[in-house]
Amino acid sequence: xxxxxxxxxxxxxxxxxxxxxxxxxxxxxxxxxxxxxxxxxxxxxxxxxxxxxxxxxxxxxxxxxxxxxxx
Length: 71
Known about the structure:
The chain is 28% helix and 41% strand. By secondary structure, the protein is α+β, with helices and mostly antiparallel strands.
């Protein structure tokens, strides 16, 4: 997800038109800013990512969903 707003250890993030409130607490020692990409699990940012890593991750997830729907 891409960070669109930061308020302390909380951020509003967006991916594919979906927005979520995400905790940045687990990455408090990372420098985070609006526009950065993070991997989110159950409401927590667990890893900072480059734009290329985020794009590759979405491509893999989309491919997995497409394969699942074929079964």
